[in-house]
From TrEMBL:
Protein name: DUF982 domain-containing protein
Entry-linked Pfam families: DUF982
Taxonomic classification: Bacteria, Pseudomonadati, Pseudomonadota, Alphaproteobacteria, Hyphomicrobiales
InterPro entries: DUF982
Length: 98
């Protein structure tokens, strides 16, 4: 089986518990972090991110979904650097209508 390492168009920035910031540009690095360094390894968002980042290694068609699920898992874990996300686009959480 051949693995690909598709690069994401925009990196995902995390604020680690030690205070450092770490940038992720591809599913391979995100998957390693999820499996080896993630602070809380349970929950639906975490499991989805692991599954999609793993699938992105097999097909570049899963790369965009892998990035989105990694962002959501990071948001749920309190690690996402929201200020590093683009002002527009679908990386930001949905805001309720007034």
């Amino acid at each position: 089986m051949t693995y690909t390492t598709p690069t994401w168009n925009e990196p995902v920035e995390l604020k680690l518990q030690c205070g450092l910031t770490r940038s992720f540009k591809e599913a391979c690095d995100a998957l390693y972090f999820l499996e080896e360094e993630w602070p809380v390894r349970h929950g639906a968002a975490y499991q989805r991110a692991r599954r999609w980042c793993g699938m992105a290694l097999e097909t570049d068609k899963a790369a965009d979904i892998a990035r989105k699920t990694f962002i959501e898992a990071a948001r749920k874990a309190g690690l996402l650097d929201e200020s590093a996300l683009p002002e527009t686009g679908n990386d930001r959480p949905m805001k309720p209508h007034a």
